[in-house]
Amino acid sequence: MKRAWLLAVATLFAAPLMATEVADMTAASAHLDLQHVTRIAAPETAQDGVRQQRYTFQPAVQPQITVMPAQGTWNWQGQGELHLRVQNAMPWAVTLAIDIEGADAGSHLHAVVALPAGPAQILAVPLRAASPLAFGMQVGPTRPFEDGGRHMLVATVVEGTLDLSAVRDVRLSMPAPQAAQSILLGQLDVVADEPVLHEAYTGIVDRYGQYTRGDWPEKVADDAALRAAVVRVPPVAPAGGEDRYGGSPGIHLQATGWFHAQKAKGRWWLVTPEGNGFFSLGVNTVRSDDVRTYVQGRESMFRDLPPDSGAWAAFYGTGDNRNAEQGAGAGRCCNHGRWFDFYAANLYRVDGRDWLAAWRTRTLARLHAWGFNTIANWSDPELDAMHQLPYTRSMDIRGDFGNVATGYDWWGRMPDPFDPRFAQAADTAASRAAQGVRDDPWLLGYFADNELSWAAPGPNGRWALAVGTLRSEARSAARQAFVADLKREYGTPDKLAKAWGIALASWGALDAGNFPAPEPDEAHPAIAADYSAWLRRYAGQYFRIVAAAIHRHDPHHLYLGSRFAVSTPEAIEVCARYCDVVSFNVYADVPEHGFDAAAMHKLDKPVIISEFHFGSNDRGPFGQGVVSVESEGQRGAAYARYLQAAAADPDIVGTHWFEYVDEPVTGRLLDGENGHFGLVGITDIPFAGFVEAVRKANAEWRRRP
After folding, report:
1. Which domains are delineated in the chain?
2. pTM of the full structure
C-alpha cells in the first residue's frame, strides 16, 4: 500500500489537539472540529503498542468529528481508499457514518458501517461509489477480517461522487446516539488502488460453500464432520392426536373432503378434509436446487472448487438472470454464465449417488420433528407427492401480455389484466398448476404470482399504478381502459381539466400516450377519487380473471391470494372479494406491524402470512434478511414472539417461514440475495439452537384446543 498523506507528526487523532488546533502533516496540516464530541486529552496505547485518542460522542442529533486541512483542500488524485485506524470502546456494536466532502457542490461520498466491539482495526472507505452488487451479491462482508495480522473492515456500500483533486474535509458521525458512545481513533491516511476492498471479497468461500473468515458451531472442516452432523436424527415429535393432515380433532368443523376455510366462534380456521381445525405452520422453498451461485467472472472468491468433470460435473451449470424490467438485483455483476450448487454437492458428499432421495426423506422427518405441518410455496413437488404433509402450489403467470410500470417493479412490471393475452396466460398457468393435483386432498390451495407492485414507496406511492397506467404508451390496454373510464365519467375534456387542475385542450392529448398524470393534492380531490376507482377496477380485473382460471381447472381447492408485499387498500379489498384466503408477506417483528389487521378484520376474510423471517450475520452469509436480530441466539425468541402474535389474531390461519436453506455467501442466481435466515445452512446442517426454539413454539401452538 502506497501511503499518500499522513495526519499529524505521529497520528492526528492520537495527538492531544484542541477543537481548532492545527496539526502538522508530512504534506500539509489539518485541524479538527468537534460537535457534541468530547476528547480525553491523554492518548492511550492499544495492545499492539499503537497510540490512539479516545473520543466520546454525546447524545445529540448527530455528534461529529470533522477533519479539515488548515488551508485550501487536499488533492487525492490517484488514490483509491481512505484508511482510518479505529477501535470501538463500547461492549456493543456502534454505527459510524463517514462523509467526505469535496470543494464543489455535489462532490460528496457517504458510507455507514457497523463498528463491532473488539480490537482496533483499519476501516477502509473506497474513494468512489461502491456496492456489493458490483461483486454479484446484495450484501458485502460486514465484519472485520485479518490481512497480514491486521484487522480490516471495509465500507462495502459508498454513495455519491467525489472530485479527488479538491477534498474539503472528512466527517465522522453517529446518528442520534441515545447514550454516550466512545471510540478510539488513530492514523488517518489514503492509499493508492483499492487493496482492502478487493481483499475483502477474495477467497471468501470454502469447498463446502461456507464463509472462510468466520467460525460458528455448525461450521465443518472435513467430510466426516459434515456427514456426522447432517445425518444426526432429529427428535421424534410427540403424538398430538391430530388427524392424518395435522388437524386438531378438538376443533371439529365441516368435513368436505378438501381443505377449506371456515369461521367458528369468532375465529377463522383452515379445515382439513376430515373436518378438523388446521393452523398452517409452513416453510417456503423446501428444495435442493434453489441456492446455486454464479462463479463465472468472480472465480477469485472461491477456494477449492471441485473439478467440473466426473461426478462433480452434475453440480455445475449455466444460466442467465438478466432482466431489465426487474428492480431486484439491478446493477449486479456476474448475473449469468457458469454456476455451482454447493448445497447439492454437500448432499452428495453425505449420501452419494442417491443423495436426492435421502435428502427428501430426511427433510420430511425434520419438518415433522420441528412441528411444521405444511410444505409451503416454491418447494420440491416430489415432497408434495409423498403425502406426509399438506402443501401449496405456486401459479406463476407468464406470457407476452402487456404490463404497467409503477416505479417499484421489484420483480418486474405489473401484468396488464386488460390485455386479452393475460386471460389466456392465466388459464394456461392454472391448467399447468392443477395438473396432477386437482384431485389431491393433501393440497391446501394455490398462490398466484408473488409480491406484485400494486404500489410504490413514498408519500404518493399508493397511486403509482394509476399514474403508471396513464403514463404508459398509447397502445397499452390498461391505459385505454382507464382513459375510456375518464371519458365516461367527465364527458368533455374541460370538465376533467377543471377537476384535476390541469391543461387539457382535447381528448387527443389524453389518447396520445405517455400522459403526464398529476399527483393527487388537497386542492383537487377528484384526482385521488378517480385514481382510487381505477385501482379497484384494475384489481378487480386481475383477481376476477385469476380466480376464474383457478376454479375452472380446480373446483376443489383454495385460492390463497397473490402474496401482497406492497399493496393499496383498494387491492386488498378486491382481493378479499375473489380469493378464499388473503396472503401477505409480512416482514416485521409481529404481523400486525406489517399489514392492516384492523382493515382485514372488517373485510371478514382469513389471512395467511405467506412469508416472514428473522436473520443475523453470524453464520456465514452477509445478509441479515428483511428483519434482522443482533445474533443467532435471538432468532428463536423472535420466531416464538411472531407466532404467538399471529395465533392471537382471529383472522390469521397460518404462518410460513422463509426459507428452508440459507442463501449462498456470494448470492443466489435470481438476484444475488445472500442472507442467513434458513433453518439449515448451505451444508444441510440445522442451526440447532434456532430449530429447537422453533420446535417448542410450534408445539405450543399445536397443543392448543
Report:
1. 3-200 (2.60.120.430), 240-277 (no CATH), 278-290+347-455+532-702 (3.20.20.80), 464-524 (no CATH)
2. 0.93
